[in-house]
Specification:
The structure is a single chain. By secondary structure, the chain is an alpha/beta fold. It has two domains: 225 residues, Spore Coat Polysaccharide Biosynthesis Protein SpsA, Chain A, CATH 3.90.550.10; 68 residues. 46% of the residues lie in helices and 14% in strands. It is built from nine helices and eight strands. An eight-stranded mixed β-sheet has the order 7-5-6-4-1-2-3-8, sandwiched between helices. The longest helix has 32 residues. The two termini are 24 Å apart. The relative contact order is 0.14.
Length: 318
């Protein structure tokens, strides 16, 4: 008889009181049909409605409530996913939204794709979005930008419905809006990634929290992820090369001006060019020193780890 947990489903929750009962019923029914051991983990993240009360009545659910206060913003979907994934015990970890736009019935299809193609990650592709026009085009623009910069190997990085092998998360901490780029990060780390088209249903209850602010924060994090991919272990290669280039350019300009002055071809009295050459040189020097300092900081980061971006208030099982 199977004793270890095979599937862990992790769901971040924020103001979804109207969707949870139907979601849990459909999710439980789907997982039972698969005939494998499973667990369902809801991570509540600063809801202002009756979400926590509803979660406490869901039979067979594990619930994590993140600490939150009115004077701080909620910690975000990435932190909720990170907390749920770290608590998961399954060999496979499924992530999905709790707004019922990701049909739970798609989970067997993702796992089937993973097993057939021997993949480490399978991502859902919402080919036909069922969102408002504003969210649809905002999301399309974000997806286009992420594809151009990160080359993730899938069409829909923003779809939360994904299945992962447990080992892909070893040594990985998520923060910011990293969940949107997780597939790209895992692909860079050498894990095999695939995707399948999944259904996307219209929202039945509640409102989407996706807006311009989230897109902007995600845009900033996208460049952070890009930098981390290319220069996380060698930031001096980025800032050092730029710094050396500017130092050489500034020195070369000073030398050129000096030669012209010695030959009495130009007069530097009142000229801005010597100041410009010095400015370029010292800017390059600052970049070079900054690269060395950043390199030391990153080495310390790898050696000592970092403080988590969230705190868990309570855990309970229903």
């Amino acid at each position: 008889m199977e004793s270890k947990t095979y599937i862990s489903v992790v769901l971040p929750v924020h103001n979804e009181e109207g969707n949870l009962n139907e979601l849990h019923e459909r999710l439980t029914k789907t997982l039972k049909k698969m005939g494998r051991t499973y667990e369902i983990i809801y991570v509540e993240n600063g809801s202002s409605d009756d979400t926590v009360r509803v979660l406490k009545k869901l039979r067979g659910a594990k619930v994590i409530v993140l600490r939150w206060s009115p004077i701080m913003t909620k910690t975000g979907q990435t932190a909720a996913l990170d907390a749920g994934i770290k608590a998961a015990k399954g060999e496979l970890i499924v992530t999905m939204d709790s707004d019922l736009q990701n049909p739970p019935e798609e989970i067997p299809n993702l796992i089937k794709k993973m097993n057939e193609d021997d993949l480490d990650v399978v991502s859902g592709w919402r080919q036909k979005r069922r969102d408002s026009i504003f969210i649809k085009y905002l999301s399309k623009f974000g997806s286009w930008m992420r594809t151009q910069v990160l080359n993730p190997g899938v069409h829909d990085l923003g779809c939360t419905l994904k299945v992962y092998k447990r080992e892909v998360f070893e040594g990985l901490d998520m923060y910011g809006e990293m969940h949107r780029y997780l597939v790209a990060i895992l692909r860079w780390r050498g894990f095999s990634v695939g995707e399948i088209v999944v259904k996307h249903e219209p929202r039945k209850s509640g409102t989407s929290s996706y807006n311009w602010s989230k897109m902007f924060r995600g845009f900033v994090d996208m460049w952070q992820v890009w930098f981390w991919k290319k220069y996380s272990d060698r930031p001096l290669h980025l800032f050092g090369v730029g710094g050396v280039f500017l130092m050489v350019a500034g020195s070369g300009l000073l030398f050129f001006l000096g030669v012209l002055r010695l030959l009495k071809l130009i007069s530097l009295s009142g000229s801005i060019w010597p100041l410009m050459a010095a400015f370029i040189f010292f800017t390059g020097l600052q970049l070079f020193v900054f690269g060395i300092i950043l390199d030391m900081m990153i080495r310390t980061h790898y050696a000592n780890g970092k403080e988590k971006s969230y705190l868990i208030k309570e855990k309970f099982e229903v």
